[in-house]
Amino acid sequence: MNNFIFQNPTKIIFGKETIEKIGDELKKNNIKKVLIHYGGGSIKKNGVYDKVVISLKENNIEFIEVSGVKPNPRLSKVIEGIEFAKKNNVDGILAIGGGSVIDSAKAIAGGFFYDDYIWNAFATKNRFKKALPLFVILTLSATGSEMNGNAVITNEKTNQKWTTSGLALYPKVSIIDPTVQFSLPKKQTINGAVDAISHAMEFYFDGTKNNEIQLQLAESIIRTIITTTEILLGNPEDYDARANLVWSATLALNGLLSTGTKGGDWSSHELEHSLSALFDVSHGEGLAIIFPAWLKYNYNEHIERFDRFALKIFNIDTGNPSIDAKLGIETLIEWYKKIGQPTTLKEIGITENNIDKLVENATQKEYIGRLKRLSKEDIINIYKLAL
Amino acid sequence: MNNFIFQNPTKIIFGKETIEKIGDELKKNNIKKVLIHYGGGSIKKNGVYDKVVISLKENNIEFIEVSGVKPNPRLSKVIEGIEFAKKNNVDGILAIGGGSVIDSAKAIAGGFFYDDYIWNAFATKNRFKKALPLFVILTLSATGSEMNGNAVITNEKTNQKWTTSGLALYPKVSIIDPTVQFSLPKKQTINGAVDAISHAMEFYFDGTKNNEIQLQLAESIIRTIITTTEILLGNPEDYDARANLVWSATLALNGLLSTGTKGGDWSSHELEHSLSALFDVSHGEGLAIIFPAWLKYNYNEHIERFDRFALKIFNIDTGNPSIDAKLGIETLIEWYKKIGQPTTLKEIGITENNIDKLVENATQKEYIGRLKRLSKEDIINIYKLAL
């Protein structure tokens, strides 16, 4: 096990009828005027927006709004948000949405105090040191952004989808009401599940040895996501399945699984980010395509771990570690197909002709991979395997 | 799954050669003068004390000391600590030890600002609202106190071993260097392991239904504690076994396993606290005796859960849930015997003649038990089963 620091100050308020508490939480944190940040307006259809507004008014909290955040959230929207927040002198941000909205809100919260050009917080080591207090009402479980300090933003001018992180970006309070996700399109539940499983796998397959407790925790999270996703495809309003999925997704990227590891491999995420940046693919679909290709390409780098994955997740045990490792990957792909995910680039219209562009985008990163540091040739091979 | 709030602000610094960071952490938190609190002086033999002093001096942090904390930490020592802390105007507390020292330090930290009579913070709902910032260097893993807001103190005048808790009592920073525990007597490692397993079991057996993710996390922690304890009995200096045990013990009572449950049953802890209060039994031994008796007495209250425990922890599956449940309990008792724990009251010199006194002490509590709320008769029966 490696040395680590774990610190996660976010307060989670979880369960039924919890959205109503948002005004009180803002008040306790001395927020007088808040910027509400959200996406395309589904929160106005499902009643979340109204509940928030009532709670804010009851607690005499002023609010202004910036909406229209899109999946793969854009830098231009972040800049719009920062300018509006400054002009209106808000003292807090309230994100109502999934990972895209939360990440966009984090960039606004950090950008509010940032003197440098905003993209430098993503591109360089000049990360956000200070941020407006951030509050979250989660409406889609996937990225874990409700309980971590990470934000992924797409610079649409340069086609870069890059990540920043820092202690200042952890939400003060995140409210997670699983019932809000009853009305999600199935596709979004599935994308979220694949994203959360992928987070757990990034830590699981980063080459760390002798981290038994973290492996068992990761396996617990992956197994629970698989079983609860299957239940929800039959009945999206099964509360307990939804609650278990939602909390598992949060735990998959709140720092717990990272403890004692090398920090995660993250190759699959980086290669997927290039896919999303260039072709606006949804992250969950991109991961269902890229991660299996990465697994196939790298299983020989840590065969015992891949063997263990097959056993602990899918009960595969032929006695031959190499066969088990491959069967484990194949079974994961079959499961992705079963829940309706694409598992090849071709299915989403990307062909061999696009690979040069993907590789060019991906190789801008300082480095990719901890289990194996990927060379340009490795990156080409993995994208080709994903075709 | 039940609604819950999760909030745990403690910063954990984990791994080899981390004790040296304490001065820097105090400085970052603007601490100028700290009260060092510890036990019988083993920290002077194993080098921990010297490392701390060097780090404090390097960072120009003044310190004073109150030592001599005993297992089942006493209220009189807490009062001594509060008076000394006030007289010397410290602005922080540094606990160097295991659960007893940390709990005593928490009571001092809270008592520093407490206007009421100190025992009222344990006896009534007038809990500590404010506390001096607390820092911890953990030397014995067991209670999880390094990452929670709980403190258990014994009032030696009234023979009450009672608990308080609150957000103010979470340590700011806890440093966990597993190598410090290499030199522990085996008995202390074993007691710590039993305590940590018992914490996980309190949540596991509190009657909550449909909390799949928390059950899997609890099972992961219990299994890891069992396997690593066995390794350490052979080789106390196996770093990875120690690191996995130590981190599992912290996770067993840092709030993670509590999420979505009824909050844990805690009958076994309460009944054990009476044992410790009256006979100064070590908590880990007391739990190895009391918890199995509670399990035997209550398995019919939630047979599916006891059946699952047998399967997931000990691979027991005869096909008959009732038989499995009983075999699971017997196997746990056998494991306690194997690692050298007493499993009956007789073994520690307590006989039927002492039961009235135990029952009298235990029934002072407002109530005991969530899986089943225990009547006086239940309490008598459980102590008798433990004979």
Automatic annotation (TrEMBL), chains A, B:
Residues 189-386 form the Fe-containing alcohol dehydrogenase-like C-terminal domain. SUPFAM superfamilies: Dehydroquinate synthase-like (SSF56796). Gene3D superfamilies: 3.40.50.1970, Dehydroquinate synthase-like - alpha domain. Transmembrane segments: none annotated. GO terms for cellular component: cytosol. GO terms for molecular function: alcohol dehydrogenase (NADP+) activity; butanol dehydrogenase (NAD+) activity; metal ion binding; methylglyoxal reductase (NADPH) (acetol producing) activity. This is NADH-dependent alcohol dehydrogenase. The lineage of its organism: Bacteria, Thermotogati, Thermotogota, Thermotogae, Petrotogales.
